[in-house]
Design goal:
The protein folds into three domains: 121 residues, Rossmann fold (3-Layer(aba) Sandwich), CATH 3.40.50; 228 residues, tm_1862 like domain (pyruvate-formate lyase- activating enzyme), CATH 3.80.30; 61 residues, Beta Barrel (OB fold (Dihydrolipoamide Acetyltransferase, E2P)). Helices cover 33% and strands 21% of the residues. The chain has a six-stranded parallel beta sheet with strand order 2-1-3-4-5-6, sandwiched between helices. The chain has a five-stranded mixed beta barrel with strand order 15-16-17-19-18. It has a three-stranded parallel beta sheet with strand order 7-10-11.
């Protein structure tokens, strides 16, 4: 039995791709190992979104290449960086035995057999393909991500995703439900629906109207599913019908991940973001009316962003009071329209603005968390921290991997995957503290 090791980098969508690859490999008899030194075959599933992610991916490839010196191992590179820069990677890193882009995973074993013949295959055709394959979860067994579409049609001027993943393509509705049912039968109780743009799901199938509300209905109706989350909604396709569905279904987290990037209308136009500042503010108001908390993402230092425009962003964040906010400095990505724009901003200015924004958000997050002290909620137990000597978990208002946790005081052993009732007793800017309610 051959042993396989995999490094998966980047977003949750990339993680799902890695889990599908591992499922295909284990179905052929491969054993998964965590130590690269033990593996006969090594995979690096790369990210190519921004410069720091590309550097991390290259570093991982070079690190895994060193293990080839320990024996006759094979090294395969997959994912977004492979899709974006196949020729450069193959020519500059001779240790790579084969490569697949994001639309070529059906050719996994064709690639491996070709590599056995020392042909160094490189498959990077464009397009979107959804495979019905086994999955090996790399998340805890009670929680899983489910991809509902791939690609993106939004064509934001700063973003390379359409260059890598292609145009928007919705996964068949019944296939998604079938996978969620299978995951639930296998012990998954928390399902997180993901895509580059979840709110647009269904726009390219059936009669073309958005189907995320219907999908949430079906998935939350699965008996063994306890919680359902949805991430990465686009403002202009976040309709009241979706918000009404989130509010109405008790299993669905009253939580919306709504990446906004900015609020200044001129910058939104130059970013090619659909929807005006007024529309964005209307979405926030409708969420607040329904008790839906908000997570967003902002970009600082986009080409031409003036001090006044950045101040407009700060004023908006003060007004909107997002419970969760992440931000990053603009990165000029090869092949994108924004990379060619004049008035690129100095890194020092970008970093100063990022610090200002995150300091502001830290105070807002602290206030939001303090408001929860004294309330009660259900918490999904994630584990025990030896250093802290406490259990920790998440409520319905904390998404896995991206948000803080709830630290738990308990007088008995708790099991990861268990749901418990908790009273919130303390807060900081990111995490909460709570005690179990008997």
């Amino acid at each position: 039995m051959k042993k396989v090791g995999m490094i998966s980098l980047g977003c949750a969508k990339n993680r799902v791709d890695s889990e599908n690859l591992l499922g295909m490999l284990t179905a052929r008899g491969y054993e998964i190992v965590s130590d690269p030194a033990e593996a006969d075959v090594l995979f690096v599933n790369t990210c190519g979104f921004i410069e720091s992610a590309k550097e991390e991916s290259i570093d991982a490839i070079l690190e895994m290449a060193q293990y080839k010196k320990l024996g006759n191992k094979q090294l395969f590179v997959t994912g977004c960086l492979a899709q974006r820069y196949p020729e450069a990677l193959m020519s500059e890193i001779p240790e790579i035995d084969g490569m697949m882009g994001v639309a070529e995973y059906a050719r996994l074993f064709e690639m491996m057999e070709s590599a056995d013949r020392r042909e160094r295959p490189c498959y990077t055709a464009n397009g979107v393909r959804f495979l019905k394959t086994p999955r090996v979860l790399t998340t805890p067994g009670y929680s899983a991500y489910v991809k509902i579409s791939d690609g993106c049609d939004n064509r934001c001027t700063y973003c390379a995703i359409p260059l890598i993943r292609g145009g928007y393509s919705s996964r068949p509705f019944d296939d998604i439900v079938e996978e969620c049912e299978a995951l639930a039968e296998g012990g998954v109780t928390e399902i997180t629906l993901i895509a580059q743009d979840t709110s647009r799901y269904g726009c390219d199938i059936g009669d073309g109207h958005y189907l995320l509300p219907e999908l949430l209905e079906r998935v939350s109706a699965i008996e063994k599913v306890h919680w359902v989350r949805v991430l990465y909604c686009y403002p202009d396709s976040t309709e009241d019908r979706l918000l009404d569905t989130i509010q109405r279904l008790p299993k669905v987290a009253p939580y919306l991940d709504l990446p906004l990037q900015h609020i200044d209308n001129d910058l939104l136009r130059r970013m090619n973001r659909r929807g005006s500042a007024d529309w964005i503010k209307s979405r926030i108001a409708e969420c607040r009316k329904r008790g839906i908390i908000l997570r967003t993402t902002m970009i600082v230092g986009f080409p031409g962003e003036t001090d006044a425009q950045f101040q407009t962003l700060l004023d908006f964040v003060k007004e909107a009071r997002f419970e969760r906010l992440g931000a990053f400095t603009y990165s000029a990505e090869e092949g994108t329209a924004a990379a060619k724009m004049p008035d690129q901003i100095d890194d020092a200015v970008k970093n100063k603005r990022l610090d200002q924004l995150m300091m502001l958000q830290q105070a807002i997050s602290m206030e939001a968390n303090e408001a929860r002290v004294g309330t009660e909620c259900e918490v999904l137990v994630d584990g025990f921290d030896e250093e802290q000597g406490r259990f920790y978990g998440r409520s319905l208002l904390e998404a896995p991997e991206s948000d803080g946790c709830v630290w738990l005081e308990a007088d008995h052993e708790l099991t990861p995957g268990e749901y418990v009732r908790v009273r919130i007793t303390g807060a900081d800017a990111y995490d909460l503290e709570g005690t179990l309610i008997e």
